[in-house]
Design brief:
Distance between the termini: 21 Å
Number of strands: 12
Strand content: 15-25%
Structural class: alpha+beta
Low-confidence stretches: none
Bound molecules: glycine
Mean pLDDT: 95
Strand order of the largest sheet: 3-2-1-5-4
Order of helices and strands: HHEEHEHHEEEEHHHEEEEE
Radius of gyration: 17 Å
Number of helices: 8
Shape: globular
């Protein structure tokens, strides 16, 4: 998702080295997680309304192994903690203080993730916002990666600091297997960006994969999942203009697609023909 060409490049290179899609998606997530200018993922992510940078991430492989961390503070690479949850514990998901405790026990370093730039934006927000967590359509650039390994196996990863200036304790779709990410090695994979609440409501990425199982192309499956959100939003008498959600999907043959509610969403694709940025089609024209 998004202008993560450096991430897709890093993922591609990693697959060239180890052959494994799982290594590729982890390497690809590291790039925005460590980038202080990327204000929606990892280090430099905008904090919650109390000034805490809290991170959500998950990872899933071709065997159905999955790991996730939610509401994690102080760790630069939550995706690697999610991978450690997957590989070194009997669990899928660890949260908050327990996730941090586990990360430290695995040798991850505790760091301050709030940069001067993000702190300044938060202090500005506080002046106007009256402490109200407001949904906006700009700040939601979750990084999701879907990759095929050398043996054709598929893996996915998703990492975010979540909605800017959210309520303390809020968790979005990104660490939830089936919502922000889903991988089924028989069919393909999907990941999501945008308002996590809306993605959770329809178990979005599981839906996209199941639609592909029924014969839809990745593009058609993303479109149908977005239309479910459109319908639900209208049924709930909410304004669609206040909502952004985008899905990307990849099938086992390497076909891919994307669709979103509002214009402006793009995604990077790196294959044997090189690295390119593609503008997603969208519903609200
Ligand atoms: N999609 C990221 C979030 O809502 O937290």
């Amino acid at each position: 998702t998004w202008k993560n060409e450096k991430g897709t490049q890093a993922g591609y290179q990693k697959i060239m080295e180890t052959g494994k899609a799982l290594d590729g998606v982890e390497a690809g997530a590291w790039v925005p997680e460590a980038d202080p200018n990327e204000t929606t993922v990892g280090y430099g992510g905008y904090p919650d309304r109390d000034g805490h940078v809290t991170l959500d991430a998950c990872i899933m492989d071709h065997l159905g192994n999955a790991g996730s961390v939610t509401f994690l503070e102080h760790i630069m690479h939550p995706i690697s903690v999610a991978r450690a949850v997957m590989e070194k514990t009997p669990h899928v998901m660890l949260s908050g203080a327990g996730a941090l405790e586990f990360a430290l026990s695995q040798g991850f370093k505790k760091q301050d993730l709030l940069t001067e730039k993000s702190k300044k934006a938060w202090l500005e927000w506080k002046k106007q916002a009256k402490y109200e967590p407001k949904v906006n359509i700009e700040r939601h650039d979750t990084i999701g990666l879907l990759e095929l390994g050398k043996a054709g196996e598929i893996a996915g990863a998703c990492s975010t600091s979540g909605m800017a200036f959210k309520m303390h304790g809020r968790v979005g779709d990104s660490p939830i297997i089936g919502a922000g990410l889903y991988v089924d090695n028989e069919i393909g994979a999907a990941t999501a960006t945008g308002h996590g609440e809306e993605v959770i409501r329809i178990a979005g990425c599981h839906l996209v994969v199941e639609l592909m199982r029924q014969g839809k192309s990745p593009q058609q499956a993303c479109e149908e999942a977005v239309m479910r959100i459109v319908k639900l939003t209208q049924n709930r008498n909410k304004n669609l203009k206040d909502i952004q959600v985008g899905f990307i999907a990849l099938d086992k043959q390497g076909n891919y697609g994307a669709y979103c509610i509002q214009g402006g969403f793009n995604y990077a694709v790196n294959d044997n023909s090189g690295n390119k940025l593609i503008d997603s089609d969208y519903f609200l024209k």
